[in-house]
Every structure is written in structure tokens, then in C-alpha cells.
Design a protein that fits this description.
Length: 100
């Protein structure tokens, strides 16, 4: 009984550590991208080619969705991850292309 409780606590702590690591990874990446984009030269480059970047992100997202779906398969973890990344890229591209 005690052994199962220790295993359950271990599994829960591994899951929490994994989630904390993912949160830290996203925070580091977003901080780095924010620093890169807020530099004057980078910001002017992105602003000047806004529609092209949006179209490239949309195309990359659609290609990633297609590759994840047909080549890797929707049932595999890698295929699902590639499809999720493709959805993120495609949505970012659409937000850049559609005027608000």
C-alpha cells in the first residue's frame, strides 16, 4: 500500500516537473523572441515585410499540417505534435494577413 502511494507521488512529481520545464522553455523562447523583435532594425524589417512573413507562416503551417497528417499519421505522438505546430504557424500567418 505504501509502495503504491510512493509510486503515485513520484508519477505526479514527474508530471509536474515536466510541465514546469515546458513552461520555462516557453518563457525563455518568448523572452528571446521579444528581445529580438523589439530591436529597432528587426522591428522595421518585420514591419516592412509583414504580408510576406504572414504568407510564409501560413504556407509553412499548411505544409506542417499536411506532413503530420499524411506522412506521420494523426495517431502518432510526433504526428500530432507536428499538426499542432502547423496549426499555430497557420493561425499566426492568418492573423498577419487579415487586417483588423
Amino acid at each position: 500500500m505504501l509502495e503504491r502511494a510512493v509510486e503515485a507521488v513520484g508519477a505526479a512529481s514527474r508530471t509536474l516537473a515536466y510541465i514546469a520545464g515546458l513552461i520555462l522553455l516557453v518563457a525563455v523562447i518568448s523572452h528571446g523572441l521579444t528581445w529580438l523583435i523589439t530591436r529597432r532594425r528587426t522591428a522595421s524589417l518585420v514591419w516592412g515585410y509583414w504580408n510576406r512573413f504572414g504568407a510564409a507562416l501560413l504556407a509553412a503551417g499548411i505544409l506542417a499540417i499536411g506532413y503530420g497528417w499524411w506522412a506521420l499519421g494523426l495517431q502518432t505522438p510526433v504526428g500530432s505534435a507536428v499538426i499542432a505546430l502547423g496549426l499555430l504557424l497557420a493561425s499566426a500567418g492568418l492573423w498577419m494577413l487579415i487586417p483588423i
